[in-house]
Every structure is written in structure tokens, then in C-alpha cells.
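If your schedule permits, I should be very grateful for your opinion on a structural question. The matter concerns a single protein, recorded as an amino acid sequence and a row of C-alpha cells. Could you please explain, in whatever detail you think fit, how the C-alpha cells follow from the sequence? I set the record out below, with my sincere thanks for your time.

——
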Amino acid sequence: MKIDSIVLRELHIPLVRAFETSFGVTRNRRVLLAEIRSEGLTGWGECTAGEHPHFSEEYTDGAWDVLLNELGPKLAAAEMIEHGGDCPGLFKLVRGNRMAKATLENAIWDLEAQREALPLSRLLGGVRDVIPCGVSLGIQKTIPDLLAVIEKELAAGYQRIKLKCKPGWDVEVFEAVRNRWPGITLSCDANSAYRLRDADHIATWDTFDLLMIEQPMWYDDFFYHSILQKRLETAICLDESIHNRRDALAAIEMESCRIINLKLGRVGGFSEAIAVHNAALERGVPVWCGGMLESGIGRSHNIAVSTLENYSLPGDVSASARYWKEDIIEPEVTVTPEGEIVVPDSPGRGFEVRYDLIEKLTVRKETVRAFAMV
């Protein structure tokens, strides 16, 4: 396919409610989008980097610079690119910056699916017509506030409740939730808030029958998670530590985790996500799709990748209305009373963009210029 134009946009979108983790509180999202036009078709990608380099080294302004001055020009200068899987080779000179890379690569996959008249999920190798949904709940002001939120989400049908936790907001919270709902599927996510000195404390969490404990310690660690996993009956799930297939293989071989949260942006896009998925599948380690407060464009990519065989646990791909008063796609993402999302069967991502709303929310916009390849 020949790239006709690449347009980058930054949108400012307020969340319906503040979302608190061990990193801090997010009330508004600065969303970066890539609009790639090719031979009469338009593919869309979304950068999942946060406003600050807290979850990873990447952040909104840094990603914008890399997209505008490094990755975008390389893609614009490519004489011909046939598949989304060609992007990692094209971008290899730029180290890291996986969320920025995923922004463009995922848009190319979208274009390819449209060109082939296939749903994006099928192009990726997906096998599901519906995906099971869980929900991630931020830290609340009080435990009664949290219980009220959980009650609402369970009534909406969500199949798994994930609680953000940190020192001082863990055991008492888990105990209150388990006393109220003994049988629900429950997990927690620490976002690296604990250290090995907390191992005795974390070991007490086994009593709460958690599906998993997500990223309890250092964001870049396998070794100490391996030590902790050997002390626990509950499965550790690694998120921030897994950047590629090699990381996944190392974590599995070291027994650092028994589950992997596989996020598209964190691993650099669909190509590497498929590689991580396949490596985990071959070794019997389930994966699931985490969320990064995406708009509907990123959310539609998450739906597509969640159809792969080994995405066997409910992910954090939830309804648009949980986060946005108005989403930038139509129809908006909805969840059935059974806690599932029906996968679109139309070509590409399967959701139309609300171009008028995107224009309204755009605070900066740049057309990428090509430079000579080196």
C-alpha cells in the first residue's frame, strides 16, 4: 500500500470520573491519534502513553516528538508497505518508544484489514465472536465508596473485578469485598507499589482467593517476582515488565509469573503482541488485555486482539460509557448483560470514527513530512 498522508492529532478528553492508582490520579486524558490515508482508505491508531512517564518511560509529549520527527517520517518515506508486520523492521533504528511505534503500526493493520475486506480480528488470527470483559477499579476515597462501585459494575455484568491497590489500601479492602461477595472473580493490581520486604504481607493475600496479583513489585523486574511467586499460592501476573517475546520467555522460564497482561502499546503493536501471545500459548501461560484509559479507537484495537486464542481471561476492555461522556467512535463500545463485547464483523476495526467530534476535541494537529531513509 502507498501511504498518501499521515496526520497526528492531540485530543483533550475529560474522564467521566477520576481514576486513581498507586501512580496518582488521572482526571483528563491527552489522547494522541494517527490518521493514515492510503489509496482511498483511512486507518487509525492511538498512542496509549500517559501524560507523565510514570507507567513507562514514554509520555505524551515525548511520544508526539518521536511520532512527528522520527517514526512518522520513516513511514511516510516508505515507497511501499504491504503489511502491519513490516513496521517493526522499518522502525528498528529507533530504540524503545514502543507505544509510539504501536500508534502507527496498528493503523497500518487497520488499513490492511480494510484492503482485504476482513475484520481486523480475523486478520490477526482471532477465533472469538465475543470477548469476556472485566473491569479495573481505581482507588476510592473510602471502602463503602468502593463497594458501591463494585455493586454497580457487577449489575452491569462484568465477569471479573480488578482492584487497584497500594500499601495501606489492600488487606482491609480485599477483606471487605470478599465478605460482601465471596464468589466473584477478583484480582488486584499494585502497579509496582511493593518491595520484597513486603513479601510476608503479600503472602497473606492468598486467603482472599484472588485470580491474580498484578505487578506487585518493580516495573522492570523478573528475579524478585520469581522469589515472591515461589512463596505464593496466588498467581502473579506481570504487566510493566513484559515488553516483547524475549521478556515473556524469560519471565516464564524464571517462574516469575503464571499469567501475563498483554497490552498492545506496551509491546509495540500487534506484531509483537502476537509473538508474545504465541510464546505464552505454547507454554500454557494465559494472557489477557489490560487497559490504558483508551478512547474508542484504542479500545477497538483491544477488542480485536482479545479474540486471539490465548486471551483466555476477562480483560479490562470495558464499555465506552465507563470513561467518556461521548466516545469518538460509533457505535460506542457496549457490554452485554452477560459481561461480553460482541466483536464487529465489518472490515477493519469495525467502528466508524466521529470525525466532527475528533475535530472539536483536537488541540494540536500536524501533517507528517517524509525524509530520506537511512
About this structure: The CA atoms of residues 319 and 333 lie 5 Å apart.
